[in-house]
Design brief:
The protein is about 70% helix and about 0% strand. By secondary structure, it is mainly alpha-helical. The chain has 3 domains: about 325 residues, no CATH class; about 160 residues, no CATH class; about 180 residues, Up-down Bundle (Methane Monooxygenase Hydroxylase, Chain G, domain 1), CATH 1.20.58.220. Helix 3 packs antiparallel against helix 6 and helix 20 packs antiparallel against helix 21. The two termini are about 30 Å apart. InterPro entries: Memb_transporter_dom. It is found in: Cell membrane. This is FUSC family protein.
Length: about 700
């Protein structure tokens, strides 16, 4: 993609307004907390302290809107406390520009490294730097700075208390995650009616798995319908695939296929019903037609072999979904007990190790930290030199728009400029025309904050309008920033955005050159998952390895998809992975993962009567597959085409043995076909060499 087209695409994405479900009650609660803090500070301490406390409450409220499974009060408290520390340290060095720039650079660098721990931590850290640039200008002494820092922390405490006292849709995020997973499986069941080999995006299931992690205290208070439903849903997906697949199930047409379509349609209806019930906390009411379709007694007469087993398992699992969604479940059946989420202090050693792991050449997070710290320092110095006053608008813009990837940085820069242009223009026009007093300005600032909380998830451009207006009115409450004109504020915002964009162009961290490594990671994870499933055919006793390998395969697939999405918008090209090649390779590996999942659906039962006997020969195939995928992953990293000759030999020998399990034999053939499709896709790409080439 050319630079011109990349800029056009990122600008379009930055200005895009997404249709998201608004949460007005949550926005009202955040604005109410802000109003309480500002009102009390104005009455008891004066406008300057009110501005500091307002920034603390505002930042704490923003933190609670981030996509995190941590309790919202914890996010508010951590946000307020870290902002208070940042503000106090910033004031101590604020009178010495060299010291302040050094602290600002260090703080921004650490905020950049915080992206290692996830986007929520990265956004909170970047926001702390941005607000610190404003709040350090308010105190007049060390004692006053301590007071301002304390009031900032109080703002976070007030927001946390409001969340505890006035909860809005408790467990709502967890309900939505589980409902989305069930709805995704319902859609998958319906797509299988038309396309028996349709692929499934595992992201909703992984999202629901993350949401299911709770503390022991939360586990005791979690709604009953959130216990166990996800575990059953995890087991339904491979059963749906095995029921529909013509290679191990029923022919593509005929009475058996008609019965399978009927079962899949009924499964989709039941799963959709359960999703709606979980999302809204209502009772599950399965439509009579779907229940009758699942209970039709002719299943045993029409279906046989693996298809019959899959149909019977599907009926049992759907009954379990309905039962657990009604609150009859007691535990998550995919893992023993509940998934435990560790406290923040226990996570600290692992977080430090993760950050240290990013301190290496070529790390995208390290490059982001270096870029952002250099840009913020340069923006602050330029803003100080320019005769506009309040030069913090430039570094504030830069730190808020910069992200570790190209598309978000450029898209947010355009959105920030456009949003600031509108927000600052309107706010400054109101200030100059109406000359509102302290209390009126504070009230308008609270209204702007409410608007920002309301539209926060619909797009950065819309949120930037309210953020810019909020800052103008809030600083006006304390008597600051009145003299600065609209052109001056917009020019400083433009400067910050341009510095951010220029820094990424000069010191990039492109995802495109790393795509083949992501592909190799996914290939290796798929191979390990398939090998773990094959090992279970030889020895059904060990189930843990299959589960771990499946989760690793899903993580690798999601990482590939996210990397490919980022690379689509980058103004660079891969020498070996064109868009068509990447798409074909992705489809091939998705098919390989689907086949492994299909084989898993027919694993021998352990500890009960076995539907199928163990296959000792599967262990040999698993061992060959591990070595073959390991070599193939290295070949992909070295820009060579994988060679599956060893796998072909084993699978060809299996074709002559009538005693080999039918499902396993058919699955092995399909798996090899998917891997061959991967090799063909890579062989067609320019710059690739065959595995045997020197």
């Amino acid at each position: 993609m050319s630079w011109l087209r990349a800029l056009k695409e990122t600008a379009r994405s930055g200005l895009k307004i997404e249709r998201q479900r608004l949460e007005p009650l949550v926005a009202v609660r955040g604005a109410a907390g802000l109003a309480l803090v500002v009102g009390a500070a104005l009455v008891f301490f004066g406008p300057a302290v009110a501005v500091s406390s307002a920034f603390g409450a505002f930042q704490a409220a923003i933190a609670t809107f981030q996509r995190s499974w941590r309790p919202r009060p914890v996010l508010a408290l951590v946000s307020g406390a870290t902002l208070a520390v940042s503000t106090f340290l910033g004031y101590l060095t604020g009178t010495h520009i060299a010291l302040f720039v050094a602290l600002l650079t260090l703080w921004t660098f650490l905020a950049g490294l915080a992206w290692t721990l996830g986007p929520t931590v990265g956004i909170i850290a970047a926001s702390n730097v941005a607000i610190m640039l404003v709040t350090v200008t308010l105190p007049t002494s060390v004692a006053a700075a301590a007071g301002h820092a304390a009031m900032i922390a109080v703002g976070g405490i007030v927001q946390a208390l409001l969340i505890v006292v006035f909860p809005v849709r408790r467990w709502g995020a967890q309900r939505d995650a589980l409902a989305d997973a069930l709805a995704a499986e319902a859609d998958y069941a319906r797509r299988l009616r038309r396309d028996p080999t349709a692929s499934f995006d595992p992201a909703p299931l992984m999202h629901a798995r993350s949401a299911a992690a709770v503390t022991p205290r939360e586990a005791r208070r979690r709604p009953a319908e959130l216990h166990g439903t996800r575990g059953v849903a995890e087991r339904i997906r491979p059963v749906l695939a095995s029921l529909a697949d013509p290679a191990v199930g029923v022919p593509a047409e005929g009475p058996a296929r008609d019965r399978v379509r009927e079962l899949l349609d009924a499964a989709g209806t039941v799963l959709d019903t359960a999703a709606h019930a979980v999302r809204h906390g209502e009772a599950v009411r399965v439509p009579a037609a779907a229940a009758a379709a699942l209970r039709t007694p002719d299943t045993g007469a029409v279906l046989s072999g693996p298809a019959r087993r899959a149909a019977l398992r599907l009926t049992v699992l759907l009954d379990d979904v309905v039962a657990t969604a009604r609150g009859a479940g007691t535990s998550d059946t995919s893992e023993s007990g509940h998934r435990t989420r560790q406290g923040l202090l226990r996570l600290l050693p692992g977080a430090l190790r993760a950050v240290r792991g990013e301190l290496r050449p070529g790390s995208p997070v390290l490059r982001h930290a270096i870029r952002s710290s250099a840009v913020v320092a340069a923006g602050y110095l330029l803003g100080t030199v320019l005769p506009f006053g309040h030069g913090y608008w430039a570094p504030l813009t830069a730190v808020m728009v910069m992200r570790p990837d190209f598309s978000q940085t450029y898209g947010r820069s355009v959105a920030r400029l456009c949003g600031t242009l509108v927000g600052v223009a309107v706010a400054t026009a109101v200030v100059q025309a109406a000359d509102p007093g302290t209390y009126v300005s504070a009230g308008i600032a609270v209204v702007c904050a409410f608007g920002m909380f309301l539209v926060m998830r619909t797009g950065y451009a819309a949120a930037s309008v309210f953020i810019s207006a909020y800052v103008v009115f809030l600083l006006g409450t304390g008597g600051e920033d009145w003299a600065q004109t609209v052109p001056q504020r917009v020019l400083l915002t433009l400067l910050g955005g341009l510095l951010a964009m220029l820094a990424y162009a000069v010191y990039p961290a492109w995802e495109t050159p790393r795509l083949h490594h992501r592909l190799a990671d996914w290939l290796l994870a798929d191979g390990r998952y398939a090998a773990a499933v094959l090992d279970r055919y030889a020895d059904p006793a060990d189930t843990a390895d299959v589960r771990r390998a499946l989760l690793a395969s899903r993580d690798a697939r999601i990482a590939w998809r996210e990397a490919l999405k980022k690379a689509r918008h980058e103004p660079v090209r891969s020498r070996v992975l064109s868009r068509d090649t990447a798409d074909a390779a992705g489809r091939a590996l998705a098919q390989a993962g689907r086949v492994a999942m299909l084989i898993e659906a027919h694993l021998p039962e352990y500890g009960s009567r076995r539907d199928t006997e163990p296959v000792p020969a599967a262990a040999a195939l698993a061992e060959v597959l591990r070595h073959a995928t390991q070599d193939a992953a290295e070949a992909v990293r070295a820009h060579r085409v994988p060679d599956w000759g060893s796998l072909h030999e084993v699978v060809d020998r299996w074709g002559t043995k009538e005693t080999t399990d039918a499902v396993l034999r058919g699955g092995a053939v399909q798996l090899l076909a998917a891997l061959d499709a991967l090799a063909e896709a890579l062989a067609a790409a320019p710059g690739r060499r065959r595995a045997a080439d020197p």
